[in-house]
Design brief:
single chain, mainly beta, Cathepsin D, subunit A, domain 1
Length: 159
Amino acid sequence: MSQLWLRDSADGYTQWTSGVSDIEVHAENGPFQVPISVPCRLGNLEETHFALLDTGSARTIIGGEFVELLEDDFGPELLPEMFIQSRLGGWKVSGPLHELKISLPSLGNLGVDLDVNAQVVAIKDFPSLMVLGVYGFLESIRFAIEPSNEPMMYFGLYD
């Protein structure tokens, strides 16, 4: 596997990727066109689900059936209510901002899965797929997108 490196001094480099996964580019999810879909696992759920990687979204949003499925996995309530503005319109969140473990699975023996204690907004009636946003998730990791015919995402924890 190709690795990505970070210059840590005048003559030294440190590997900053710990894993890599296949991603979907320009995928369709129901009525939505999704520019970049990333596989992830939520809380203690074993199944892998795809989420929209959105550097323009302030928050990570979990909606629909996941809110009920993950009820026991949510960590402490960080805020009782938030207002979310999205490309789908404004949302008055009836649920709180929670902590939740989100894992980015790595391909086979090409690295290790990355677990992040993320901050997520739970909106039962959010009409889109799950969104991985900046605050509380993307700001915690390093990532790079390989936009070739076989698109991939390289990732590692930002420390």
